[in-house]
Hints:
Layout lengths: L1 H30 L3 E2 L9 E8 L5 E10 L2 E14 L2 E12 L12 E9 L17 E2 L4 H7 L5 E8 L22 H28 L1
Parallel strand pairs: 1-2, 3-7, 5-8
Antiparallel strand pairs: 2-4, 2-6, 3-4, 4-5, 6-8
Amino acid sequence: MLIVLIWLGTWQIYRLHWKEGILAQITAAEAAAPVPLGPDPAPYSKVSVTGRFRYDLAAQYGVEVRDTLAGPTIGSYQIVPLQRDGAPTLLVNRGWIPEKREKPLNDPSGQVTVTGYVRPGDKPTWFSPADDVATRRFYTFDPDAMARDLDIKDALPFAVVALGTTPINTYPVPADHLPRPPNNHLSYAITWYGLAAALVVVFAGWVRKALRQ
């Protein structure tokens, strides 16, 4: 058991260094300039793409509560197809919007350039809520299914999540950084090494008691 606990702690240290390397790559990607969107971009790469938003086909994705000036507010993410000349349509997650708002959304018209990161699609699980196609509300981030339900024939199989900043009380609110995986490996390593140390102490106490008998 002692060998197993030490091995688990050492494995978590290895995972810690591996995860820190990934986080360093994400930090470097955030600082780098975006590259033009190609036909087969790497997942979560930082890109820029130009086109015209089809607000008539805008949809909502997910549910998220955020702290706003009005207090905790429920909202979702605005998904808008970006129509491009001579290129497939691209779904863009423009950012979070509250369900109830006094001001209209900041929807730029004409040709726009979006900077963001490539977001691959997910597939629904047994616990995923069913999408409400009639109201264009989706609960699984599946660009293929979204495009099909929005009757878009030429959509790419991935989406772009917009990056940027907006003034307070201006919506949608884009992402301000690339997604980062959790890094709990140090605490896990301490836990496993701590259990190993506790096992040694308990065993030493048992040996001392046995020798006295």
